Amino acid sequence: MAVIFFxxxxxxxxxxxxxxxxxxxxxxxxxxxxxxxxAEYFHIDYIPLHHYLDRDVYNTVCPVCGFKDxxxxxxxxxxxxxxxxxxxxxxxxxxxxxxxxxxxxxxxDNLTKEQTLIAPNVKMSEIKSSVRIRGGKPKEIIxxx
Length: 145
Prior knowledge:
mainly beta
């Protein structure tokens, strides 16, 4: 007897930093937002078989506070075609080591050198998941001793 799992699953695709600098509704900081596509699939045994195109949802994510905001599909497709220079991506994610396994998660503005503490006393795995939520790549983390 075999067990078969079926249903729908959501996959997240990070499109990247796109568009102009926009003020976040949550933290009121002005940065270029990360664009993320949430696509829904029908699966059997967690193998995606059918993509529901009408259920695609685009979100913009603030790189500082991680606030997600819905964006219309036509606007997201318009923004996703734009390329962004490295000058707009002016944030760095830092993992400042406190103890053996504890870090402070900090976001640093490369232009003003202002540092914003996001989470104190967290593990590296929590920092990596927080960077993914904000639309970044965990490889971008710089460890500061």
